[in-house]
Amino acid sequence: MPATILIDADACPVKDEIYRVAERHSAHVRVVSNDIFRVPVSERIKRVVVSDGFDAADDWIADNASPSTVVITADILLAERCLKEGAQVLAHNGKPFDAASIGGAVATRAIMADLRAGMDGIGGGPPPFSKTDRSRFLQALDKVLTAMARKG
């Protein structure tokens, strides 16, 4: 059975790359968002538009995560939920979330939220998305799908 890639699509900068890698691996793709995105015409790629309710896209993704899915998200709390369901999880920059790293990522997220709250509007954000991030993501997704196919 081919893998299914679930994309937390509202802020995903690598959707086109996902479509290309998924095609090579005959993987299915679900583009999950609160908004309508244009997706390639393919029987393997489906758009899933959820309500604009708080965490509606995250809830759909977590409810559909399984050991045969790869979840693409930058949302650390969603990554944690999906890992509990046995899914493989990658950030948009190719960084994998796994059982060994998710606890530290959740703790760092909480600390940063506290720091930002105390800075009274001063803050940054993640660094700009780079060509290196895109390349790292492509390699990581290909590696995950290849490993899943070998197990499969």
UniProtKB/TrEMBL annotation:
It comes from Qipengyuania pacifica. Pfam families: DUF188. This is UPF0178 protein K3177_00295. Belongs to the UPF0178 family. Coiled coil: none annotated. InterPro entries: UPF0178. Signal peptide: none annotated. The lineage of its organism: Bacteria, Pseudomonadati, Pseudomonadota, Alphaproteobacteria, Sphingomonadales.
